[in-house]
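In practice, a research group might receive sequence data for several interacting partners and want a quick structural hypothesis before committing to experiments. The following worked case mirrors that situation: the sequences arrive first, and a predicted assembly follows.
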Amino acid sequence: MTAAQAPSSYREAIRESIREAMRKDDRVFLMGEDVGRYGGCFAVSKGLLEEFGPERIRDTPMSESAFVGAGIGAALGGMRPIVEIMTVNFSLLALDQIMNNAATFLHMSGGQFNVPVVIRMATGGGRQVAAQHSHSLEGWFAHIPGIRVLAPATLEDARGMLGTALEDPDPVLIFEHAGLYNMKGQLPADAGPVDIERARVRRAGSDVTIITYGAMLWKSLDAAQMLAKKGIQAEVIDLRTLRPLDEATFLESVGRTHRALVVDEGWRSGGISAEICARIQEKAFYELDAPVERICGVEVPTPYPKHLEDASFPQVAAIAAAVEAMVPAHG
Amino acid sequence: MSPPLEVQSAPAVERTHAIECLKQMLRIRRLEERCAELYTAAKIRGFLHLYNGEEAVAVGVVQALGPEDGIVATYREHGHALVRGIPARAIMAELYGKQEGCSRGRGGSMHLFDAKTRFCGGNAIVGGGLPVAVGLALADQMRGKTTVTGCFFGDGAVAEGEFHESLNLATLWRLPVLFVCENNLYAMGTRLDLAQSATDLAKKAAAYGMAAEAVDGMDVFAVEAAAQKALAAIRAGKGPFFLECRTYRFRAHSMYDPELYRAKAEVEEWKKRDPISNLESSLKQQGAILDSDLERLERDIAAEIDDAVAFAEAGTWEPVTDLERFVYSERRPT
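A structural hypothesis for the assembly, expressed as tokens:
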């Protein structure tokens, strides 16, 4: 029996997940810049202050390091904080706390102090907000042992990942693509926590595996649809979790399709796409019928004008063209 | 009950308590002297930051804290850990890198942790512990507890953004944090007046609207009295308190430091204010302690440290197969 569907959006789905978590567990609270009276800079937390009050929906000063560190400390002190950072670029002001404290305490303390904090932030470009608000740095964070890095692309994941992340004894970073907040869709009325361990095949195919995450999932699915018209069946994998990486899912797929294309909005050099390529050549080299290819963000600080910004990110046509070049005999 | 003693500039202190303070400071001093020897003998490696000269701060403040209070310390934290009640054995084993150490050997000198005493780490990023202390206090406040987090840091941290962010946030939310600035006049090798536009550090804290006070950090009773007063104010709900303890580090910053940045005469001048020898002579002068008492004290401490070293020597190495443990919790959500 399928539960009744209700209209929702990526933004509302996240809001509902916060609301549910706060109703369920009084250790959960939200803090960050403008999460309360302003309603969140992306309006994710709109209305939550009225429901939960200023003790649990905490507006903070513009002090990323202090309030992220306070989230870490509050987690050590038995709370289950959700810390919101406006955008990934601002998270760099809190990188010390994330890297040097959240990711290390369990290890440095020999297993005594785990840090159950959840840190959410917006990532990604496409809104003409230029070179200090548009980057996709989740690949950097995925470099760090000790944290989990999630990238919800769908409404189900926007709704479900936070709840599971709050159950996790270790620090979890959730990267919400800013371009997806307005994405509309349907959610089951009983939508709830989802697993945060596994990648998922979002479209089955037999000719090539497109490995992607976040907003690039939707561009990859559009490209796959175009390719289908030309007789190419692309399998599209949504990584969902960038650390720890679920390599089993994409390796299994590549074992069937024998071709892989990685699509990443982030920069190419040293990015998560490089890691995926390396894993494939380490573990599925003899399965490959063609070199692993990549479509990544062009390596520039994101420019403001639309035509240049568009040119700096992977687009549907480029993804489709890359696949066509990899799959010679088709049609 | 013993009659109160007038010791140095400090308030009247009971004899047994005065001797206890001396004992705690001596435990730290002797433990660290042994650490330096063991470093030279290559038993302890990596960084080793010694606290000689600053013992009155850890002893004065930590003794004033309650058993449920939290502590966030720096990489110069052996003394705080010892006074807090982490056994010398567990500290020494940690310095050896043995799995019997208080952090299983994984942290070493700069990262002593102990969940039982809420000792939330030596933090080796200057200023990095302050936001964490703010968070611990926030958790306590939200959970309706009356506990306080004692947060230690040096004058160097005052130059960090995290210091200013944390003091502001703690005051804004009236959080129960006792900020203890161990001002030893040098941020590693850079003298305070070469790093700070205004060198009165308590004034900087006061600018955030919190109660702030400077105290002679070479006088254990002065530190303790100030800490007690600060803690009472914090527990009464008056928000955080900033206590600047003016002190001095007798030894180098770390074992790598050739001390090119300060004159020997300056160090010698400060050694005249040694919190341990001054308290010893003061107690002797007042007849509160005899040479034989002191000898016994030293003997007991030496025995404790010998035992700690033997424990560390006999300790075991964590198997390499365990290398990747404690990156993530072993308990996963079901």
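Before designing any experiment, note the following. Chain B touches chain A through 49 residues (CB under 8 Å). Chain B has twelve helices and ten strands.
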